[in-house]
Amino acid sequence: MMTRAEWNGLISEFGRYVLVGGLAFVADFVTLTGFHEWIIPTVPYSLYIATLLGFVVGISINYVLSVSFVFLSVKKWGIGRTRRDQFLFLLIGVVGLVMTELGMVLGVEVLSLHYQLVKIFLTGAVLVWNYGARKVFIFNKKQAKNEEETL
After folding, report:
1. 9: helix, strand or coil
2. Reduced to 3 states, what is the DSSP secondary structure of residue 42?
3. Is residue 72 exposed (0-12), middle (13-18) or buried (19+ Cβ within 10 Å)?
4. 76-90: burial string, b at 16+ Cβ within 10 Å, e else
């Protein structure tokens, strides 16, 4: 059972993650829209290529800000910076990308919704996935403490 201080810390951390996610989302959304509307509008599957490019920009910003601002355990135990942690960060992001791409196909092609509306909706779902998975598999203080004690 979590103490009140642990809950407050988790809520504060999630708030920072939402802020960072918001900044990453803006960069992702602008990249997606810019490529789809102006840079490659006539390229086949431009929406899905632009979605991928937006993802790359967004996840890059998200990683840098997550290890420097969101997850304070990074500073205390140095987690999140190993190759294993970077690989997991990317892998979790790729799952989010797959969720986004499939959601775009469903929303745009099947439900005939505007791609920007679909992207906004999907961002909320993927934000929850990304935070939860990264918190459990990468930025877990208990895991870091256990690894430190076994050294």
Report:
1. helix
2. coil
3. middle
4. ebebbeeeebeebbe
Distances in whole angstroms, Cα of residue 86 to Cα of each of 4, 53, 64:
31, 19, 11
Residue 13 has pLDDT above 80, yes or no: yes
Determine the Cα angle at 41 with ends 40 and 42, to 5°.
Answer: 95
Round to whole Å and give the CA distance between 51 and 95. 14
Tokens 């992207």 belong to: 119
Say whether pLDDT at 31 is over 50: yes
Q: How many domains does the chain have?
A: 1
First to last CA, the chain: 27
**Number of Cα atoms under 13 Å in the Cβ half of residue 55:** 24
Kindly tell me if the per-residue pLDDT of 123 is higher than 60.
Answer: yes
**Domain extent for 21:** 4-150
The pLDDT tens digits for 35-55 are 999 999 999 999 999 999 999
Q: Report whether 76 contacts 110 (CB < 8 A).
A: no
